[in-house]
Amino acid sequence: MLVLSRQRDESIFIGDNIKITIVDIRGDKVRLGIEAPTEIPVHRQEVYEAIQRENQRGGTVEPVELRK
Fold first, then answer.
1. What is the three-state SS of the chain?
2. How far apart are the C-alpha atoms of 38 and 9, rounded to whole Å?
3. pLDDT at position 57, please?
4. Which of 12, 16, 32, 42 shows its CA 20 to 30 Å from the CA of 60?
5. How far apart are CA 47 and CA 34, in angstroms?
């Protein structure tokens, strides 16, 4: 894991087309602005994990369902 220190209004780039900017810092919370191409999905971790669980569930078909 790469760990960087940034201050408010400073940015980092991932590749040539993803820019992450520190928008605000309040106490123990940091607000990030993320600019990425529309074809690259950007999700919070808990949303990403929920999507992955749903995709795994959707990929399994019970044999009873096949007879319908």
1. CCCCCCCCCCEEEECCCEEEEEEEEECCEEEEEEECCCCCCCCCHHHHHHHHHHHHHHCCCCHHHHCC
2. 23
3. 82
4. 42
5. 16
Question: Given a cut of 60, is residue 68 above it in pLDDT?
Answer: no
pLDDT digits (tens, 9 = 90+) for 17-57: 999 999 999 999 999 999 999 999 999 999 999 999 988 88
Q: Are 40 and 46 in contact (CB under 8 A)?
A: no
The residue extents of the domains of the chain are 11-61
Joined tokens for residue 45: 């971790």
| CA–CA dist 40, 19 (Å, integer) | 12
Do 20 and 33 contact (CB within 8 A), yes or no?
Answer: yes
Distance CA 23, CA 17 (A): 18
